[in-house]
Amino acid sequence: MPSDEEELELDLPPIYELADKVRITSLIKNDGTYPGKKLGEVLIDVGEEGYVISIGTYLQRAYIYAIRFMDKDIVIGCRKEELELIERGDQSESNAT
């Protein structure tokens, strides 16, 4: 059970939304959950950009954002600390009206 000082991320809404364009802020290596790659192998470099395609949870404590990297044609699960927002996904729809 979390202490009073520790706030669960899932107590708040996700900070990223579906179709948001994001940039990686931390080197992403295979932690053993990415099939077909060696443990510790670099999957995504800092600065690469992708789109949020789904939002899940990890251990009922944190959000995991599935990011599709079009250039590499892969999907990687990332935590909020590993991402920065470039553009909200709904901007093009709101600008069209």
Mean pLDDT: 88
The total strand number stands at 7
The gross shape turns out to be globular
What are the segments in which pLDDT stays under 50 over at least 5 consecutive residues? Answer: 1-5, 93-97
Strand percentage, roughly?
Answer: 35-45%
| End-to-end CA span | 47 Å
User: Given the helix and strand composition, which structural class is it?
Assistant: mainly beta
Describe the structure.
- With 97 residues, the protein is mainly beta.
- It has one helix spanning 91-96, and strands at 21-24, 28-29, 42-44, 49-58, 62-69, 74-78, 83-87.
- The strands form two sheets. A five-stranded antiparallel sheet has the order 6-5-4-1-7, with no helix packed on it. A two-stranded antiparallel ribbon has the order 2-3.
Question: What distinguishing features does this structure have?
Answer:
97 residues; globular; two-stranded antiparallel sheet; 5-stranded antiparallel beta sheet; 6% helix; 1 helix; disordered C terminus; mainly beta
